[in-house]
From TrEMBL:
This is Adenosine nucleotide hydrolase. GO terms for molecular function: diphthine-ammonia ligase activity; hydrolase activity. Keywords: Hydrolase. Residues 7-212 form the Diphthamide synthase domain. GO terms for biological process: protein histidyl modification to diphthamide. SUPFAM superfamilies: Adenine nucleotide alpha hydrolases-like. It comes from the Bacteria. The lineage of its organism: Bacteria, Pseudomonadati, Bacteroidota, Flavobacteriia, Flavobacteriales. PANTHER family: DIPHTHINE--AMMONIA LIGASE (PTHR12196:SF2), DOMAIN OF UNKNOWN FUNCTION 71 DUF71 -CONTAINING PROTEIN (PTHR12196). Coiled coil: none annotated.
C-alpha cells in the first residue's frame, strides 16, 4: 500500500491533489501544514489552526503542524517530514503544484531527504481546466487572500465558473497559480461534513488582502 502525507494548505490545489492521489490508489495517512513563526495562522494562506483542524476532522485524518520563518523553512520542513516518517507508515508525499518547475524541484528534494517519493497529481494540467474540474468534482472553495489586482471585495467569494470568467476578463490567472489569490476548501464529496466559516474582518498586509475567518457552529 502506498501511504502518503499531503502537504496541506487548506486550499483548492492541495485538496484536489489529495483527491487525485486517492483516485490513483494512494492511501492518505496524515496532513502537513506549516504555520507562521507565531503559530497563529498558516504560512501560505493565513488560515487559523482551528479551521485547518476542522478540515482534517472532515477527512478523518490527523494533521501535523509546525511553525517556521521563511528563512528556516526548508530545514524545518525536512525535520518534520522525518518526524512524520518515524510516526507513520509513509512512502509518498503529495503536493498540489501544477507547473512551476522550481517548486517541483524543491518538493522532490525535501521528500528525498526523508526517503519519500514526491507525487504531484496535478502536474502539467491546464490551469483553467483544473479549476473547472475541481468545481465539477464538487470542491467548494472560497477566496481567503488575494492581491490588489483583485482587491478585498473578492474575499469570501466562492470559486465557480462565473468567477473564473471574471478573472480572465481582468487578466488574472484562473487558478491563481502565480499567487493572485488563495482559497479555503469548505466542502468536498470526500469530506464527512461541511466546514462553516464566516468572514469576521478584512485586512491588508504587504499589499495583500486577507480575510480573517471564524468557525460557525452548525
Amino acid at each position: 500500500m502506498k501511504h502518503f502525507l499531503c502537504s496541506w494548505s487548506g486550499g483548492k490545489d492541495s485538496c484536489f491533489a489529495f483527491y487525485k492521489a486517492l483516485q490513483l490508489g494512494y492511501k492518505p495517512t496524515v496532513l502537513l501544514n506549516v504555520m507562521n513563526e507565531f503559530g497563529d495562522r498558516s504560512r501560505s494562506h493565513g488560515i487559523t489552526k482551528p479551521i485547518l483542524e476542522a478540515q482534517a476532522n472532515a477527512l478523518s485524518l490527523p494533521i501535523h503542524f509546525f511553525s517556521s520563518t521563511w528563512k528556516d523553512y526548508e530545514e524545518n520542513y525536512i525535520k518534520n517530514l522525518n518526524l512524520l516518517v518515524e510516526s507513520y507508515e509513509l512512502s509518498h508525499a503529495v503536493f498540489g503544484d501544477i507547473d512551476i518547475e522550481s517548486h517541483r524541484a524543491w518538493e522532490e528534494k525535501v521528500s528525498k531527504s526523508a526517503n519519500l517519493k514526491a507525487v504531484l497529481p496535478l502536474w502539467q494540467g491546464d490551469r483553467k481546466q483544473l479549476v473547472l474540474d475541481m468545481i465539477d468534482t464538487g470542491l467548494e472553495a472560497i477566496i481567503v487572500s488575494c492581491n490588489q489586482d483583485l482587491g478585498a471585495e473578492f474575499l469570501g467569494r466562492t470559486i465557480d465558473a462565473s468567477i473564473i470568467e471574471t478573472f480572465e476578463s481582468m487578466g488574472v490567472d484562473a487558478c491563481g497559480e502565480n499567487g493572485e489569490y488563495h482559497t479555503l476548501v469548505v466542502n468536498a464529496p470526500f469530506f464527512k461534513n461541511r466546514i462553516h466559516v464566516e468572514v469576521i474582518k478584512k485586512s491588508v498586509s504587504s499589499n495583500y488582502n486577507f480575510a480573517e475567518l471564524g468557525l460557525v457552529d452548525d
